[in-house]
Design goal:
The complex is a heterodimer. Chain A is mostly helical. Chain A contains eleven helices and no strands. Chain A has one domain. The longest helix of chain A has 32 residues. Chain B is α/β, with parallel strands linked by helices. Chain B has two domains: 242 residues, Rossmann fold, CATH 3.40.50; 114 residues, Coagulation Factor XIII, Chain A, domain 1. Chain B is 23% helix and 36% strand. Chain B contains eight helices and 19 strands. In chain B, helix 3 crosses helix 4. The radius of gyration of chain B is 29 Å and the shape is elongated. Chain B starts with a strand and ends with a strand. Chains A and B meet through helix 2, helix 5 and helix 11 of A and helix 1 and helix 3 of B.
Chain lengths: 263, 411
């Protein structure tokens, strides 16, 4: 619980870092932050073109609206936010070596701001998804309002992992390379490109222990199907998120004093 | 009341020959060690009273930055403790955390956030900071377009804009032009006057002399000397000179039975005391007593004495032949007195010569064999304390003759 209070205490500083991160990405470009909108928009159009027009992939009504591009996009949004945060976490301490060595500064917020920054991009993507759904005449269920709760669990889980990755990479630099591979594996092992129903019976166990599967499925249930998500997988997610968060914070705090010696 | 209390502070860095070793050692949990220990700092203790300004000097790699980082809390000590009273602000590196793509204003607010100043508070201080930095319209342009001078001005302005009780400054003033350095010194003076405690590290010994009450000299991670600034800086300068000039080995040659006059003993003492002494204060009396032996038959001799500083500078030399003093032509002893030694801090050496009656031929010479140290108790620079007086011209009403007020200073 203390970890949450601590985060709240630094929310203004985290906000500043997020703002700077988002602005830095498009600094000097002519249309600036507008790129954040164009990127996901192009992805959605591309998915639609490739999967619906060329490959003519269809998913059953059980898996959403029947439009595969929308189905894929809905799964990609939370995954991208997750993967981006973790991938960047591996280098974040080194990147801010100057701040850590030269100023009195709460380094714990570094992975956190990456997660929040990823979430901001995800929200832009969600807005585009919602617009596309409205455009195609999709009827939203009031259950969509429960999405922030899922988002919160997702953030909690991601922050916990990001702390572990950020702290450990300082001492074991190879983790940066490992993360790239692990995230690619994760992308394909989580049913994002394919519906979970296609996973053979014997391999379902892989899904039930994958918290990101729970996240992706919850998104699809709430947004596309208008159904409450599967409670067991949500429970797994909740437990995983809280444990990871608490342990991650401990690990980071424990390793932090030694950062300045190594970087 | 002490603002900074550092006791037995040590910092050991573990040096691994490759990153794998770090992992191995961690996994074996200390059953085997793969590192080499490097003591960046060993058993350093000092205290700084509230409102005092403490200087930190020493060679590169002596541990100054490590000590400052430990006091600031950005590094954790291996052993020992640091106790601080009050809010700390550090200037360990100017512009740490500036992002070159952002404007000066944006970077200011970001730095403020990192230092824990709310955006509202920062907004209130902004005009003052921008004013001090003197970068004009550039405040709205990306920092990457700044000249290095503008960059450090902005960084210094923001770093000192917080209102700390303890200010830790590392080498901040060694950048920028004269004008900027002057403004920084003014700012620091202002901090001093308002009773802040300052820990100040610099290679500019003159700045240390003029700003710091007390100074710590670090050498190889340990305190070589600490205390009154003028004394510590004096000894450090002396050490620097000594290192410059490798001491010539003293060659002693067994001369066999002596057939010519020779110097048998040289003794340094203070204020006519008989006790031998090699530590003097500026203004002490230095007496050099030379005993010499003259084998039969009696031969007229003269005595020459030359003082050197340890870097080889010839300070002063004289002899009985130029002063028209006639030493006895048989074995005896002569004393040369400097009633008020005008030398400044440092290490000095004396050469003694025994000459023939024309003062030309050397019977015996003992070069730089006798050394002594001087510690100064006056605030001044240089080799020796010249007697001087100041005269101030007081601006007067038009029509009147300018008048002088004068004061005489004596060491």
């Amino acid at each position: 619980m203390g970890s949450f209070v601590w985060l709240w205490h630094h929310s203004s500083l985290i906000g500043n870092f997020v703002k700077r991160d988002l602005m830095a990405r498009y600094k000097g470009s002519a249309i600036g932050l507008f790129w954040s909108v164009i990127h996901p928009l192009i992805m959605l159009v591309l998915y639609s073109f490739v999967f619906s027009k060329i490959l003519k992939v269809r998913v059953g009504a059980e898996e959403g609206t029947g439009n595969f591009a929308i189905y894929l996009f809905c799964g990609m949004l939370p995954w991208n936010a997750f993967a981006e945060a973790l991938n960047r976490s591996s280098g974040v301490v080194l990147e801010h070596a100057n701040l850590i060595k030269r100023t009195i500064f709460p380094a714990e917020i570094l992975p956190v701001y990456l997660v929040v920054s990823g979430i901001v991009n995800e929200l832009i993507g969600l807005a585009i998804l919602f617009a596309a759904l409205l455009f195609t005449g999709h009827h939203f269920s009031p259950l969509v309002l429960a999405l922030p709760a899922v988002l919160l669990l997702q953030v909690t889980f991601t922050v916990g992992l990001a702390w572990i990755v950020a702290a450990t990479t300082v001492f074991i630099r190879d983790l940066g390379q490992i993360m790239g591979v692990a995230l690619t594996l994760g992308l394909f092992l989580t049913p994002i490109f394919y519906p979970p129903a296609l996973v053979p019976e014997g391999w379902r166990i892989l899904l039930s222990i994958n918290p990101m599967y729970a996240v992706v499925e919850a998104y699809r249930s709430l947004i596309l199907l208008g159904r409450p998500p599967a409670w067991p997988s949500l429970a797994v997610l909740g437990v995983c998120a809280l444990t990871t968060f608490v342990i991650g914070h401990r690990i980071f705090r424990r390793m932090q004093p030694a950062f300045a010696d190594v970087i | 009341m002490y603002a900074i209390e550092v006791s037995e502070l040590s910092k050991v860095y573990r040096i691994y020959s490759n990153p794998k070793d770090r992992l191995k050692e961690y996994l074996l949990r200390g059953r085997r060690t793969y590192h080499q220990a490097f003591w960046a700092l060993r058993d350093v203790s000092f205290r700084a009273g509230v409102g005092s300004t403490v200087g930190l000097i020493g060679d590169n790699g002596a541990g100054k930055s490590t000590l400052l980082q430990l006091v600031a809390g950005t590094l954790r000590p291996t052993s020992g403790s640091v106790a601080l009273k009050g809010r700390v602000s550090t200037i360990l590196e100017l512009g740490a955390g500036f992002n070159p793509e952002f404007t000066g204003r944006e970077n200011l607010f970001m730095s403020g956030a990192i230092m824990g100043i709310s955006q509202k508070e920062m907004g209130r201080r902004f005009p003052e900071i921008a004013d001090f930095a003197e970068i004009g319209d550039f405040i709205e342009r990306p920092v990457k377009m700044y000249s290095s001078g503008m960059y450090v001005r902005l960084a210094f302005a923001v770093a000192t804009s917080v209102d700390p009780d303890i200010l830790i400054i590392d080498e901040a003033l060694s950048v920028g032009d004269q004008y900027f350095q002057k403004r920084c010194v003014d700012r620091i003076e202002q901090f001093r006057r308002s009773g802040k405690t300052i820990l100040f590290c610099s290679h500019n010994l003159y700045q240390v002399l003029s700003i710091c009450d007390e100074t710590i000299w670090l050498r190889d991670g340990q305190v070589a000397m600490a205390g009154q600034t003028s004394r510590v800086v004096g000894m450090y300068e002396n050490y620097l000179r000594e290192r410059e000039l490798p001491r010539a080995p003293v060659i002693r040659v067994d001369q066999g039975p002596r057939t010519f006059p020779w110097i048998s003993r040289v003794r340094l003492s203070r204020d006519g005391e008989d006790v031998e002494c090699d530590q003097f204060m500026t203004g002490d009396e230095l007496a050099i007593t030379v005993q010499y032996e003259v084998p039969d038959p009696p031969t007229p001799v003269h005595l020459g004495v030359v003082l050197y500083r340890n870097d080889g500078v010839e300070v002063f030399g004289t002899g009985t032949h130029v002063a028209n003093v006639k030493p006895p032509a048989h074995s005896g002893s002569i004393r040369l007195r400097f009633p008020a030694l005008p030398l400044m801090s440092g290490e000095y050496a004396i050469s003694v010569f025994l000459l023939d009656d024309h003062g030309v031929h050397f019977y015996h010479q003992r070069e730089r064999e006798f050394t002594f140290q001087v510690v100064q108790n006056v605030q001044a620079l240089g080799l020796c304390h010249l007697e001087h007086r100041w005269e101030v011209e007081v601006p007067s009403d038009p029509g009147e003759q300018p008048s002088f007020s004068s004061g005489v200073a004596r060491g």
